[in-house]
Design goal:
eight-stranded mixed β-sheet, seven-stranded mixed β-sheet
């Protein structure tokens, strides 16, 4: 009896661990999911008995389906349905030069389907609620072309194009196949299956591409390569990850400027072009016999022995352990320098696309480790495809809005080509390539141009969502902290959006286009998902649809921005003139004249200066940029990159997601307490109760710091009072205007008074300290007189 108090008996057998994973891993066998982006299409094969379900993800999106038999004859009866009309929307999209529809065009041509004569099924309409689904069953083998038609959005009608999700449930399961391989990126030169616990060597010509795919997800693969030219001379110089890390300055290269892997001679061997996973290892060696021997698994199959066997025919000597790029291997170094590993981040079909920079002998493995979580405790296959160097693949990294989302590859904005004339220094930002700085100026010159003249910057990655319907105002009043009922048509309000516990989801601007029409512009895709989820949970009659790729925008900022834009902006007689546009107001407009390119112009910005944002459809971006650039010649206009933007926004006290706020930060702690009018806004909104409590009992405050040192200070540096840490730096920069290093920091309210002397800890926090003092927030124009001017 006494023992049971200390060692309680648990009845029954042990229960399995509860692990929540993304939906792709929990789909029933034989189930496939495809997302058709707005203004996009896919081609899929259907077998007799397969079930096809189509879901209107965001609502209000039309769908067209052309289903054809083996002869290419379209017949809607294959899906048990009658024709609704022609595939006009699909044909209109295919008539454009959109390269994303390349595979669709190829699939239609290969099956000799004549769309002009094809009958189509038309599903959904402009008022279809989000989540509406229709299902069909194929009566015989066929091919289906599924389209989410869309054209150029009318900025006032807000008729954007949004995704359709297709789910196929196969009637017959293929034995030993858990997930189907995704379609090739182009016609492959080679298809190489690397079965679990094996390795294969292969030759790749200079310029050709190598796609390494994780077939079932959670599987790592070691990759190694040699210059074939050196190998023929008896010089065995494999890819060297230590040399690579030194030259690239990264733990492992990624698509972009720092994308190459080198050998010990510092010769570049391969370049990373695309990556849908984003988590790899370039520290550990490929698993070897000694590793398994030492942990109690003598004789275990290993990647090193598999490499030795595969490379022997190419003249490579065997080794006891191979240095390698361990793609999809999830490792890291903790604060104590200890290396750790966990399950890979890779999903089924994730891949890395490399380009050979010289003739290569390559080897890839499907790692056999079943003793740890390195392969999700279940080693599976890897697949390799090679493609001709004549193909064109753009640099890209995949991002996902939620764990269940399909990956979206990095895009070029509509303004990319215009900015690329001035720099090649682009970095991945939130799913797009944005300029970091410009070759002929540099961040300091760009900074001064913003403070004294005028600059132009690409802000197209900002996420836009059209919120429309009779309950649009009620929804906005509930999900945003500001009092939306007071927002007039043509008005813009800066607001926060919070979780119930008061932590911030995002900050951004809300535009009111009409009584029941709003546009939310924020920093991430999840903001739109969250708003839509709230609307669905409340049963509100409102659509929340993404328009990010229908509205690309540049910021034109600086003291001369008004004089510059006045030359090229035309507004209708019933709209405000450009000079009548006040701070936080917007108007539909045209470029030059009444029949010019349609625009939306707002007097908003993120620099702390007088400024505007100009929005247009991507097809018009080059025309808009050229007009602004030409008009700006008399105003010292310069292109403006992310490095300079960070400088001006820190001086002006503008906060940035992931640095100055997170879901653990409420608006008061983020320095934007004015976005939470708890007394004047009578209506309930998400997070209100938590914000009342947190305002009454504050714990931390965002403050400005002056730092008496020229030593670099960065995000995450700790703030001390004596021995105790009392806060952390959120953002910092060396101010050209103020002539000193300044920072934004979140500190304990006990020590947040202006004038308080603190210290910043460098190194381990104690061996090196920098004197700092709390100063009024913000450092530059705290009354915001310049943007109001």
């Amino acid at each position: 009896m006494q023992d049971s108090l200390f060692f309680p008996v648990r009845p029954g057998p042990p229960r399995p661990s509860t692990i929540l994973t993304p939906r792709v891993f929990s789909l029933p066998p034989g189930t496939e999911r495809y997302v058709i982006e707005g203004a996009g299409a896919i081609v899929v094969t259907l077998d007799a008995g397969d079930k096809l379900c189509l879901r209107n993800d965001e609502g209000g999106q039309r769908c067209e389906i052309v289903v054809a038999d083996a002869t290419g004859r379209a017949d809607p009866a294959i899906l048990g349905a009658a024709a609704s009309g022609k595939a006009d929307g699909l044909m209109a999209m295919l008539d454009t030069a959109d390269s994303s529809l390349r595979n669709v065009r190829r699939g239609i041509a290969a099956r000799q389907i004549d769309l002009a004569k094809a009958a189509a099924l038309h599903l959904f309409g402009s008022t279809t609620p989000a989540g509406t689904e229709e299902c069909f069953r194929a009566t015989r083998d066929s091919v289906a072309i599924i389209a989410a038609p869309g054209g150029v959005m009318d900025f006032e009608r807000q008729n954007t194009a949004t995704p359709i999700t297709a789910t196929i449930t196969r009637s017959m399961l293929r034995p030993h196949v858990r997930f189907e391989l995704p379609d090739p990126l182009a016609d492959p030169l080679a298809d190489i299956r690397i079965h679990s616990a094996t390795a294969e060597a292969y030759f790749v010509k200079a310029g050709d591409y190598i796609q390494i795919l994780d077939v079932d997800g959670r599987q790592c693969t070691d990759f190694q390569c040699f210059s074939a030219r050196k190998l023929d001379k008896g010089l065995q110089r494999p890819l060297d990850v230590t040399t690579t890390r030194t030259l690239m300055g990264l733990a492992y290269p990624m698509p972009g400027l720092h994308a190459k892997y080198y050998d010990q001679d510092m010769e570049a061997l391969v370049e990373v072009v695309q990556d849908t996973c984003g988590r790899h290892d370039a520290f550990a060696m490929a698993c070897a016999a000694k590793y398994y021997d030492d942990i109690g698994y003598p004789g275990h199959v290993n990647c090193t022995d598999n490499f030795n066997g595969a490379l022997a025919p190419f003249g490579a000597d065997p080794r006891p352990g191979w240095m390698a790029i361990n793609f999809f291997f999830n490792t890291g170094l903790d604060a104590h320098g200890v290396m750790y590993a966990d399950e890979p981040w890779s999903r089924p079909g994730d891949y890395v696309l490399l380009r050979a920079l010289t003739d290569l002998v390559c080897v890839s493995s499907a790692c056999p480790d079943d003793t740890t979580a390195a392969n999700g405790w279940n080693p599976t296959d890897i697949h390799v495809r090679t493609y001709s160097g004549k193909e064109t693949f753009k640099r890209a990294i995949a991002i996902r809005a939620t764990p269940d989302s399909e990956p979206k590859m990095t895009k070029e904005t509509g303004f990319h080509a215009s900015f690329a004339k001035h720099t090649g220094n682009f970095v991945e930002y939130n799913g797009y390539w944005l300029a970091s700085s410009f070759a002929q100026t540099g961040a300091i010159d760009e900074y001064w141009a913003c403070r004294e003249k005028a600059v132009i910057m690409d802000l197209s990655p900002l996420r836009k969502f059209e919120i429309t319907g009779p309950d649009a105002e009620a929804l906005c009043q509930y999900v945003f902290t500001r009092d939306v009922r007071k927002l007039s048509e043509g008005g813009v309000v800066y607001t926060a959006m919070c979780y119930p516990h008061g932590g911030m989801i995002d900050d951004g601007t809300l535009f009111r286009l009409g009584r029941d029409n709003f546009r939310w512009i924020g920093g991430n895709d999840y903001g739109g998902t969250w708003i839509r989820e709230q609307a669905e949970s409340l049963g509100l009659k409102v659509l929340v649809r993404s328009s990010t790729d229908q509205l690309h925008n540049v910021a034109v900022q600086g003291p001369e921005s008004r004089d510059l834009l006045r030359k090229i902006i035309w507004t209708a007689p019933h709209r405000p003139t450009f000079d009548q546009l006040e701070w936080f107001r917007f108007t539909p407009a045209r470029l030059h004249t009444h029949d010019g390119v349609p625009l939306v112009v707002s007097r908003t910005g993120y620099t702390g200066e007088l400024g505007y944002e100009v929005m247009c459809h991507p097809r018009d971006c080059a025309t808009v940029f050229d007009a602004i650039w030409t008009a700006g010649k008399d105003h010292g206009l310069k292109p403006f990159g992310l490095e300079a933007l960070d400088m001006v926004r820190i001086e002006a006290g503008r906060i940035f997601a992931g640095y100055d706020f997170s879901d653990q930060t409420d608006p008061f702690e983020a320095g934007i307490g004015f976005t939470g009018p708890l007394k004047s806004k009578a209506d309930e909104f998400i997070g209100r109760a938590a914000l009342i409590r947190r305002k009454e009992h504050p714990a931390r405050k965002l403050v400005g710091l002056d730092i008496d040192s020229n030593v670099d200070v960065g995000h995450g540096d700790r703030v001390y009072l004596g021995r105790a840490q009392v806060g952390e730096v959120t953002s910092a920069m060396r101010s050209p205007l103020l002539g000193k290093t300044i920072a934004l920091a979140r500190v304990d309210v006990t020590h947040a008074e202006i004038g308080t002397a603190l210290e910043l800890g460098k190194l381990d926090g104690y061996q090196k300290r920098l004197p700092a003092q709390i100063v009024p927030f913000a450092h530059y124009d705290p009354k915001k007189e310049r943007p109001r001017a």
